[in-house]
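Give me the fold.
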Amino acid sequence: MDQEKRVRHLRQILLWPVYLLPLDEGAPLQDHWEHLEKPGPDNPWRELDDEFGDPCEFQARHYNEFVTFLPPVQRFLYGQGLGRSVSKVYGESPIRVMRRTDVSAARITLDKGGEPVMLNIAHVDLYFFYDIDIAILALEVWADDIPLTTAQSLMFRFGRAYPAYWESRDGRGGHCPWKVEWLGVEGQVLAQSDYENREKFLSFVCRHRAPTTAAHWEFLLAPMVLHHADVKGLVRYRQLEYYRMPYMAYLSLERSEALSRSDSIRLALGNEAGENAALPYSDAYLSDFETRYCYDRNFMSGGGEKASNVRFHASGDTLVVTGDSDDTFYTDLNNGILSRFRHQHFLMFLIAHFQKASLLMFSDRLVGAVSRLEITNAKANRVFRRDIRHAHENFLRFAHRYWFHDISHQAQVRELFDMTRRHLQLDSLYGEVREELQDMGNFLEVEATRKQNETVVRLTVVTTFGLVGTVTTGFIGMNLFDWTQEPTWWKVAAFFAVFVPTAFLTLYTVVKSRRLSDFLDALSDETVSWGRRWRALMRVWFGKSPS
């Protein structure tokens, strides 16, 4: 039976969203990709031109991909073809894709002393999004003719940014491969993992209260550097999610009918290979597994002309499709399920995780803004208002430009996207972030109203005490004294003799306006004794400064 469970073609696409730190704290928009456009010996990334260039090179596959999506999503993914000069006002696509071609394969040793598995690398891409401070690493790998158990172990262990623990038996990082090596075009080792280096991960968390990443993933993102790392870099990033990266997987099986229910469960939920009949969880937990995690619109096993073994498994963090290797439509790289998996389904999965990463980024940014807030610090207050204003501005653009509930009228894409969004709980996360922003906005409005009221009170106090001077100077101006015959210097001196003390008294009244306001309140309150009124007057000069 195990001989029948072979994967004739495995293709896995890993997504790793990271939070990009601002290049300029005072700027509402950041163009991080511009720093990767500059060629250099330490920068292997190059911007990838889209397929919408020369019409002679535009293929039917590109057209099929384009028409899959609704117009708002088309504008997001492909733009409007108006040229780079209007890219920032949403002419071209707000997506920038950088690609590196120096890494051609991954050699993965799953267990100590085991035979390494070679994975060919199809693409290493880095997606940037206009006015959203995140980047998503997309790594596509493939292999032919491997056992199903090996494929499951690869999918389970490969995409680990750092180990969750270490096994006492051999010190290997928990749930991680024993070793991962990036190979260059000539087969040379470019970088390798260091999951077993406990001291590195423990000391980093102890010093920075944040996890570091394995060496081979750091290499893949370079010259971008981890935020807390002691390495210079123009573009710094921080991890947003769980250390296990979301992934898509395509399995072309020799006989997909040989998959047991346990196999389907492990594929859908991203578990490691297990015994054929043993379920990874309880029967009660898995009672509605097919309803929650399986998309069986075209799944009709059991033989016959209408039989189809193509089955999708979606859990939010995983999207796995299985089918028969002798099904030509399933394995067609240009027009079949494999083509859709690599393009339409990939974009669908990318959009869902882009939305989640963006919402987590907004939430993280708000937490950072609140943590830096000091009510008594004027500079901190100004920075807080600026940060919240920028967050409101960016969230408004995100909600109207990037937030989609429906991306396609094609049933398969629409329903898979709905399943993925539901498992990722995007609607509830969106509601939480929106409420947090509203709370911040309400706080700023209350603060603005409070300051406005304080200003009105101070002006009222100044007006009240200035009334005495106004009446006095007005009385003096009633020609009680005939100074018309006095020389000009006398009149100028008389003017400044009144102006300087009046200006000084006005400014002094503004300085003491808050205490004078308390005195006026006490003076106007008939229930307050004269002793308390006197003490309120004394506090104008000898009391503590009000907060």
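The mean pLDDT is 83.
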